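Practice record 12: protein with phenylalanine.
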Amino acid sequence: MQLPSAQVAVLETASADEAQSVDALASATDLPPETVTGAVFELEEAGLVAINEAVDETITLTDEGAEYADEGLPETRFYEAALAAGADEDPVEMGPVIGRSGLEGPQVNIALSNYARKDYGVIDSGEVTADPEADPTADPELVALETLAERDEEVDADSLAVDGDVLDQLERRGLLERRETTVRSVTLTDAGVTELMAGISAAETVGQVTPELLTSGEWREAEFSEYNVEADAEVVDGGNVHILRQTAERVKDTLVGMGFQEMEGPHADADFWINDCLFMPQDHPARTHWDRFALERPTHIDHLPEDLVERVERAHREGVGPDGEGYNSPWDEDFARAIALRGHTTSLSARYLSGEQIGDLEPPQRYFSVEKVYRNDTLDPTHLLEFFQIEGWVMAEDLSVRELMGTFEEFYAQFGIHDIEFKPHYNPYTEPSFELFGTHPTTGELVEIGNSGIFREEMLEPLGVECDVMAWGLALERLLMLMYGFEDIRDIHGTLCDLELLRDTEVTY
Ligand code: PHE
């Protein structure tokens, strides 16, 4: 007869005369107890072994039980203190008895209720009497506790000559714990003995069906291994495009769908493109050295279009138009040539609008970029030192705030966001200017999501643009917060990011 190897091992180890526990079989066969239990059930079904089940009860003392075994039960200690105070002769006051007993806190109540239950005496109106006949040292509860304490940690209940009621009482008092386990012992049946004598061998199980097995017909005889469809499989995390990148792609698709073309340009750029072209005065606080990430090498840009530099400088000094006003502050070309990481991608807009990047543009035009910008901010749940800005602008005759707001409503609606709010704002390069806010889906707080406006004459004229341009910079990370409910930008970005969240969040389309 052929059987799986675990069953063979059990059968060869089991005896017809002497029952053996599963644990004994497990150590004799060197198989895990679960495997032996499984094999034993299979063998029982085949009629080769018999299983006898017994419920085994083990008892352990709780910490409190062990303490009483050592120091005496609270009621015993109370009785002794009462005796010492003469309560066997006359009633004595309870307070001093408690003091003498050394009992504290909840133990006092435990002592008093058990004192009465065990008839050690009477407690009435704050006075105690003690029955001189009582013998607390022979108290069955105490004796049981002491017996348990003397034995090993776990005690087989059957081996303990203690009354069941006493054990019940001790269990109710929380002084011991009882645990029941099923112990299975195994004996060979007559059929088992017969099979053993006839000879059994371990069946080789087939794990995989092969073409040979099928064509040879051997499959007919083969014993197939069983599948464990409930086994835990290892989780394999494959690579994944970061949700920021995925959302950036989606934003790009959306803007392309709205008729925009993509801008490209340097991450490190001359201040001229980052600030001067935007009519940002050179003494503007945002241009101070601690707010920018300057480059050590190269420190300055080689090429700037000379006529543009001249026009930008004139706008800064004198303003534009007949009634124009400039800043009346110093303007230094060397300062404009200094290179830093861009704090916004409006530097790209300046490059494109000036004609420097892809030549002169005729209206209407729509351009965007979804790219990284760098700011020396203080890290907090909504600020990082770098983030993705969704830059965009529309060049056309006669643009108004309605077109600007309408564009945002159309854009955000495609991400399921319909409650954009606008607040008046100030930028040196736009007039009017608006900040955009959205409502955080879980906290309900207003989150700033972008900044926008209509570019001023002082910016557009030097760039050579003769019609209106409306423009904006939106934060991609803030859009994600509104879409997925993140509260801390550092969950998705940087060294502290939450990998589980990044793995599990699916970008919705
Ligand atoms: N540059 C602005 C910022 O970084 C965004 C902006 C771009 C505002 C264009 C108005 C016009 O916040």
